[in-house]
Amino acid sequence: MTPEALAAFGALLVTILIAVVALTFKVTTTLTRIEHQLFPNSGQSLRDRVDRIEHQLERIAHRLDLEDTPNI
Question: What is the value of pTM for the model shown?
């Protein structure tokens, strides 16, 4: 191989490596953001909101059960 071909091949490898590192960083950042939403944390995650809705529905269901109970 000529020195020019080696240099071109080296440049190609460096470009590919940079692209892989950039993609890895993007995937890692995205997964971190998703993980933040899946677990209870600051009260603003999707998980926190689902937990609050579930609790509210349980309270509403309990109230409806009490209303359906005949008074003796």
Answer: 0.62
